[in-house]
Amino acid sequence: MSGIKILAILLIVAGSLGLIYGGFTYTQDTQTAKVGPLELTVKDTKTVNIPIWAGVGALVIGGLLLAIRK
């Protein structure tokens, strides 16, 4: 399997996941305070939205790469 085909398949999978889920969330430790034996942390949840055009674009480019490189 060539590198172009692997890239095309990865783009198709990523585009499909982007269209299905529409985004993802992650947790980030933002502040840490140590006072003696106590340690305080603040966990902040952030959401990243994936635009529809990016998912469709990844699908189209992946499909074109598969069609061109047979």
Protein structure class: alpha+beta
Instruction: List the strand order in the largest sheet.
Output: 1-2
The low-confidence runs, each spanning 5 or more residues with pLDDT under 50, are none
Helix count, DSSP H or I runs of 4 or more residues: 2
Terminal residue distance: 11 Å
Give the overall pLDDT as a whole number.
89
Apparent shape: elongated
Strand content: 35-45%
Number of strands: 2
Return the domain count.
1
String of helices and strands = HEEH
The percentage helix is 40-55%
- The Rg value, from CA coordinates, equals 20 Å
| Major sheet description | 2 strands, antiparallel
Can you characterise this structure?
The structure is a single chain. The chain is α+β, with helices and mostly antiparallel strands. It has one domain. Helices cover 51% and strands 36% of the residues. It has helices at residues 3-21, 52-68; strands spanning 23-35, 38-49. It has a two-stranded antiparallel sheet with strand order 1-2. Helix 1 packs antiparallel against helix 2 (52-68).
Pick out its properties:
2 helices, about 70 residues
